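S2.1 Query sequence (Integrating conjugative element protein, PFL_4709 family)
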Amino acid sequence: MPAPLSRFAPGWRTLGLAVALPAALAVFSPATFAADVVVVTDSRHPVKTMGGERLIDLDEARRIEAELSAELPTDPGQATAIVKRRLSGGGPDLQRRIASAYQGVTDAWSLGITSIPAVVVDQRYVVYGEPDVARAVARIEQHRGTQP
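Output structure tokens follow.
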């Protein structure tokens, strides 16, 4: 004769909670509501990221330029030769860093960012001045929930 279901139900409920709770938290976290999150900031405006967002650091291009021009001689010909060696010595990784840094500046400008830090969701909604990305996304999601 089969055992009554009630004898097994508590274990199954515990297992169900152990599986369902983390899944529900992941599904309803602010990061999953926003399809595309871009954060624009610089070194004077640190942000607390949540993971998965694109971070545009507007200082990155300046830092790379400083690396390339560090301790250059005053003679323009010598300085040019040193910078060319540094550029070629950096290889594809340096080229990607440079391209990414300037693309970030271009993207921030294209998004119409006027202040930092800025959290942009789906290239449509922006929160300025909030250093906690998860809170900014939550504010955007709250606003989106009130719109028809």
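Residues 76-111 form the longest helix (36 residues). Strands lie at 37-41, 54-57, 118-121, 125-128.
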